[in-house]
What we know:
This protein has 78 residues and is mostly helical.
Amino acid sequence: xxxxxxxxxxxxxxxxxxxxxxxxxxxxxxxxxxxxxxxxxxxxxxxxxxxxxxxxxxxxxxxxxxxxxxxxxxxxxx
Length: 78
């Protein structure tokens, strides 16, 4: 879903939660491939400034953001 992608792109904390859920489901640690979402560098921010801008992301992310958060929390072990 586009709105989930917007949520992950705009929120490193939510992207970290998603990486944890993936790791929990696959029994390993979060892959380095998620680093650009979970810990974006200054260059990552500059190169995707418009994509990461809250005014652009918020209307899309708000569509299904709550559902994504619920699903990620449900996927993580207690």
